[in-house]
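INFO worker-7 received task bundle
INFO bundle size: 2
INFO processing item 0
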Amino acid sequence: MIKKILVPVDFSAASAATLRYAESFAAFTQATEVKVIHVFTPQVTTGDALVILPMGELMDQRDEAFDTFLAENPAPKGLVRKSELLLGFAADKIIRHSEDFDLIIMSSTGDGDLLEQVFGNIASEVSQNAKCPVLLVPDQAIFKEYNNVLYASNSLSLSRRAVLQFRGFNELFHARVHFVHINDEEGQHEGKRESLFAPLFNNPDPEFAFEIQEVTADSVQKGLVEYLQSKPIELAVMVTKQRGFWANLFHSSNTKQMVLHPETPLLVLHLED
């Protein structure tokens, strides 16, 4: 069950859209609390040191900006929203707070495409190290009930633990699941269909409809993009151990290649080592 949702914001239009998405998600799933946090990291500039305001004044200004942001994006009626301004490094604070929450919902995009914004930045670090699942929301996404979910398959994501973790999440939606396995050009992900999906069928019967698709593409990223473009998918799901996920998935030097359709959120589920 998802009861407590953490939503980091940075006052951008993308994070405002993410907050709307998160609170619509919370209302649909009957979550009991949405906590909105903003982490203020003072920046040292090369300008005249005499114009640098005392920390107290800087925090007061940021607190006022936070209040304005929340007022401009009011919570839906009946939803409990909490908020807190924090001082420190954003990724560290978000990861620390994740221990007390069931889900983080945060923006994956800014002005550029997904990988330019996510790879190596705060969203990437949180996705790798958070203590709860992370839902990354592109700025064009609007929450609607998940009827079709893409579940990127590999030996890790089709382990019993991973499938059971995802099944718990999908109990909220009973979405049809598209288990999509990419056979890339180098053959690194090829394998016998029976052995690849054996863990799934060794589990108790899933309480959702599903289909298995094997796609041949030049890369995992390209195969996922093409599938998302061809199907009415509302959510993509990937499973990772808490380290190495982004580095392993995005090994290509072409980091401008998007792994997601710009309207499709990505749920990152973690398996402990």
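INFO item 0 finished
INFO processing item 1
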Amino acid sequence: MSSIFVFDAYGTLLDVHSAIACYRNEAGPDADRLSDIWRTKQLEYSWTLTLAGQYVDFWTLTQRALDYALARVPSVDKALKPKLLDAYFTLDAFPDARTTLRALKAKGHRTAILSNGSPDMLKGAVDAARIGGDLDAVLSVDVVKMFKPRPEVYALVTDYFKCAAGDVTFVSSNRWDVMGAAAFGFRCFWINRGNMPNEYPDFPPQQILRDLNSLDFVV
């Protein structure tokens, strides 16, 4: 059984929609639509730039994605932009994130984050969520200047821990991320919080779990 557990950050440990939740009343009835577009474009930009052989850090993409979302949802006051961006540095951790990381460390496992996030974004979020003490490493794609699901990104884990891909258990709420990690050779668990349909049948996860608390029963 693997003793190295690596987690995606955004959507897995950290609630990406908690930024809009802080300002839901100010954003109005289209708050959730804005948040969904913001997240979708943030990821789309990371994929298209990587496919084109280009790189812009994730914080810049986050800002550009929010600009696009605000343009698409004109009912939300554009004056909220600075507040929403600030909130991204202090995203709420899912309640099961702290307990899961703490439980893994108590059992002697090594833990890490592997994220598209820029180093400053990740430091702010990890500090705000108070999970840094239960992590051995916070690894950012900024080192290789390309985004998931490129194999060079997952290799950051094996390089850091000086291990084989099969020694790593990778946990993500993003099915495309699980696909990339499984293709690289990680043992993968998909945290399907939204009860989404399965995809990428050629690269299945080891198990599909509804939350991180369920991980304790299978490790």
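INFO item 1 finished
INFO post-check item 1: The chain is about 45% helix and 10% strand.
INFO post-check item 1: Strands lie at 4-7, 110-115, 137-140, 168-172, 187-191, 207-209.
INFO worker-7 idle
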